[in-house]
Amino acid sequence: MRDREKVAAEDAEGSDVRARIIAAAAELIASGGPEAATTRAVASAAGVQAPTLYRLFGDKRGLLAAVFEHVMKSYVSEKSARKPHPDPLQDFRDGWDMHLAFGLSHPGLFAIMSSDPQLASQSPSLGDGQEVLRRRIRNLALAGRLRVSEERALGLVSAMGIGAVLTLLSQPEGKRDAGLAHAAREAAVAAITREAATPKNAEVRAVAAALRASMDRIRVLSKGESLLLSELLERIADAE
Asked: Which residues bind DNA (predicted)?
């Protein structure tokens, strides 16, 4: 009887209970990934009974969808409020950097996105975020700086942006490739615009990459020398 009374009281709180549960689940996901947001853990963290979760969200997937929407809505709101740069290409670069920073600070959200793309695709805020990106691409097109169709540009940037985040998240936090985010951004710029930046010392970097790829053919160096030279060539090839 007491449990029933407690559940009834929780339901009476309505949206406050829902918000508390979503906040608790979001915190668990941020610290331990989607797997950490078990029904028991979320209920305990939110101070509610497990039946309340099922009544409000249906199942764990429904709860994950609510958390995804909650976090995305906050991010897209911030993204939309940002004053655009007068140069549409710089504005695109700024938006890319913001996306990468958001992704790296929300690994749990991207874990949900990669494990259940259909769930993520149903988020209204994800669609709103795509519209923000679409406007940036439209501004590039209006300025005559786009070299592919707007739809192709949208698809390329979305795929490359999500891929860059997931790749960086797969690397140990203290050993992430610091230059990958910048390189991926400029690759996206090169893919959709006429104004890709020319890398510094591009010819030298190309030679270094070619030589490193041929290291298995070099027999005159010791194993230690080969490892050292390979590391140095990799650093030259990846130099900004």
From this structure: 38-57
